Task: inverse folding
């Protein structure tokens, strides 16, 4: 081979070696690679999402509850002042509260003997609903979700309708120990989920805080405060959560010890 031909061949070979060494690796186009590629892409998306959430500093921001509720439901939060049915509905709630408190303070109160006072909220909800339905021109019910299901859990607990005007009010009873009105502990929760969302009307949102004396098992209820939530400020607590099912799944447990339990765990 002539000298020029050898040089050309050597240059070509060198170029091929450099191209192979420096080119971007190509993932083989085999079906078995596709799940791994998808997982890698999903993980990278999650990383970017978490970074974006942290940059927002959501836990440090304050939001108007009225804005949050309207953003997720499309329904306005209306102050009670200025509503035609306002005085009528508030009076009916006041009367119902006095009657239910009297019942819950009785010797045969269903709340006596409960392990946790929070379990007593349902008895107040049921009592208020029963008495408000006795009031002339007032209808009270458990609000249905967007999916059409009657659901006890989640905000709000009760839906009140003034039959003369069709105006709607949401009412959320909360039990609290006397003197805790100034506490910074979180006691109001609103978790917006599309199918289970229960805010389906332009409405006035009310919360009634019912104070008890803290005498465990023999609680006495002392007073109540009815609050208009149209001016409420809320915070978003951004946290990552896991259940016991997530934590103790077979794929994560390294070792087991001790005696066998009811669930077969060791």
Result:
């Amino acid at each position: 081979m002539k000298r020029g031909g050898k040089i050309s061949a050597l240059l070509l070979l060198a170029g091929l070696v450099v191209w192979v060494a420096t080119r971007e690796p190509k993932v083989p186009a085999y079906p078995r690679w596709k799940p791994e590629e998808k997982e890698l892409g999903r993980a990278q998306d999650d990383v970017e999402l978490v970074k974006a959430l942290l940059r927002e500093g959501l836990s440090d921001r304050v939001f108007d509850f009225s804005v949050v509720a309207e953003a997720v439901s499309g329904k306005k939060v209306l102050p009670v002042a200025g509503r035609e049915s306002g005085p009528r509905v508030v009076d009916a709630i006041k009367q119902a509260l006095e009657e239910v408190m009297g019942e819950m303070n009785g010797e045969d109160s269903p709340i006596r003997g409960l392990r946790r006072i929070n379990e007593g909220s349902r008895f107040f909800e049921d009592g208020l609903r029963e008495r408000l339905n006795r009031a002339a021109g007032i209808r009270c019910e458990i609000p249905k979700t967007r999916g059409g299901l009657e659901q006890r859990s989640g905000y709000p607990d009760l839906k009140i309708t003034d039959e003369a005007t069709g105006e709607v009010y949401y009412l959320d009873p909360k039990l609290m120990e006397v003197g805790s009105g100034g506490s910074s502990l979180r006691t109001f929760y609103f978790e917006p989920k599309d199918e289970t969302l229960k805010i389906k009307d332009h409405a006035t949102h009310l919360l009634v805080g019912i104070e008890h004396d803290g005498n465990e098992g023999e609680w006495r209820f002392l007073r109540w405060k009815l609050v208009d939530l149209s001016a409420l400020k809320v915070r978003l607590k951004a946290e990552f959560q896991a259940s016991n099912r997530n934590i103790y799944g077979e794929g994560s447990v390294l070792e087991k010890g001790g005696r066998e339990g009811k669930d077969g765990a060791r």
